[in-house]
Amino acid sequence: MDIITCNKVVKKFNDFTALDNISLAIPKGAIYGLLGPNGAGKTTLIRIMNQITMPDSGEVLFNGTPIKQSDIAYIGYLPEERGLYKKMKVGDQALYLARLKGLSSYDATRELKKWFIKFGIQAWWNKKVEELSKGMAQKVQFITTVLHKPSLLILDEPFSGFDPVNVQLVRNEILEMRDSGTSIILSTHNMESVEELCDHIALINKAKLVITGGLEEIRRNHGKNEVEVVYRASEPYQFERTGMTSVVVDSVNKQGYRAVLEIEKDSCSSKVLKELVSNIDIISYRELIPRMNDIFINLVS
Fold first, then answer.
1. Is residue 233 in some structural domain?
2. Residues 216 and 229 placed together within one structural domain of the fold
3. Contact 173, 146 (CB under 8 A)
4. What is the mean pLDDT of each run of 10 residues along the chain (301 residues)?
5. What is the pTM of this model?
């Protein structure tokens, strides 16, 4: 069963259509990338999932039944717009947010102390929020989002404000939660993070769903049936002899060349390599699968 199912969701603001007949299914225990350019409708869809706003038509199901306000207790939401009370002490702020999620004062304090140590911010417990750097404030918000162990975690640009070390720290936590059964929606413009983390994606552009499916399947489907071959030779090889079309032939160094070849759709690598090794000395061979960044640009341009 999917944890979230959207069926023909429509949302308008006066004459502006924010979501136009969006249908998608978010599987349990996976990281689902929700992608799209600014203003595409992603945040509106997330707010509908969180019951912050309602659709004009269509429905959202949570665990197979129409989502209701009480389901929010099982959802953790880190919005792109950050917000902590600047004059509060960090520990008091974290406790306040944890209590809103239903944790007792004792349980919240115990769990927060563990997370603060894990994230290296235990010394800031009694400091004011306004004294925190952007990255440390982001850590506090991430912690309070996941503290109640939600079954669905919605993260909107979760790496904003982090240096590479802390990006890796948060990525590891996200993967660990996924492996423990948490379903995660990741909304981000960072296509590198999408490729590293996401199992499935949906791309929304101008209020419409452009594409949805498994990440690797989408990448392969948008490929051009090309492979890269690096080989040793005194001069470029004429690949047309093997029935393949060379798209690019470049000199790599004095001892070798790089060629990009078009091959027949669904040709297996072993067959292609068998045809090549009898003619040239191959150094490396790899399929050219497009990056999500290129697919994103191509689909929204």
1. yes
2. no
3. yes
4. 94 94 95 94 94 95 94 92 85 93 92 94 92 90 94 93 91 96 94 94 95 93 86 80 70 76 75 80 88 92 83
5. 0.87
